[in-house]
Amino acid sequence: MKSTVRAFVAIEISLDVRRVAKKKLAPLQREFPDVKWIDDDNFHVTLKFLGPNVPVVELHKLIAALKRACRSVEQFDLVFEGLGAFPDATNPRTIWIGVTDGVDELRDLATKIDVEFGKLGYPVEGRAFSPHLTIARSRRRDRGDNSARDSRNVDDHRENVATLADRIDDFSDFYWGCCPVDRVVLYSSELERNGAKYEPLASIELAPIGVASLPIEDNFVEEDAVKKTTFDAAKKTELDRERDKLRFTPRPPRNAKSNVRPNDRKTSAPERKKSCKTNIPDLSELDAENLEQILKQEIENAE
Prior knowledge:
Helices cover 39% and strands 27% of the residues. The protein has 3 domains: 4-219, Cyclic Phosphodiesterase, Chain: A, CATH 3.90.1140.10; 220-248; 262-302, no CATH class. The relative contact order is 0.15. It is α+β, with helices and mostly antiparallel strands. Helix 2 (59-70) crosses helix 3. The radius of gyration is 40 Å and the shape is elongated. The strands form 2 sheets. A 5-stranded antiparallel sheet has the order 2-6-5-4-7, with helices on both faces. A 4-stranded antiparallel sheet has the order 3-1-8-9.
């Protein structure tokens, strides 16, 4: 195993955007075969290039730094629109698809990653971050000797460049699609004859929407903390449900006609009414002596 790797951090591009790009760029690829077109499977938006010789033993530190940076950035969307070139369309060394929405979020993410890697000794970017999706690189052919053959090659190349600039301008307002960004990827890059070969080393998720805005003491650092919290909440809800079953045992249904529970109906309503009448003496026809005897008897019975 190699002791060092060529590494960078990037956003992977959604399948929908890559499909549109593959279909729309196919005519340009046929028209300009000398341009080095990047395979759509390798499309990405670079956030930080770490260098050609990153020690493998430091990869775990880089992953930890990415987790610290990503925990404070919420998931967002990127909108890809237009086509352009560096340094400009008349000298298209690098051809790219533009980013119109999600630029601020992407810059914030790149800045946080830059800061965390700076703590590990990696150089901080000195220039402003310019988000773009590189799709091709052209070979420079404006140099040669003074032979007539080289002069013709240079003229042909300049003509092709002018035509390519027109084609780029045709896509200046083209909408390529929207790409959800919910993670960043640490890639290794191996330069080969047919182009670079990318291998994902780690994938770090961004914070769910609403989580990154929590105070730092409420923001979870551990991996899968959000899943754990969701599980704990579900478990607590289940315990509360069981506790409520014990605390609030449902009462038997009442009878609709008599409004008395079935178990209480030992006697019918008329019988209960009759018994109430027989148990209560009619005191209106009793004299004082009889009344006193009745009261004494009731007191004795109560004792």
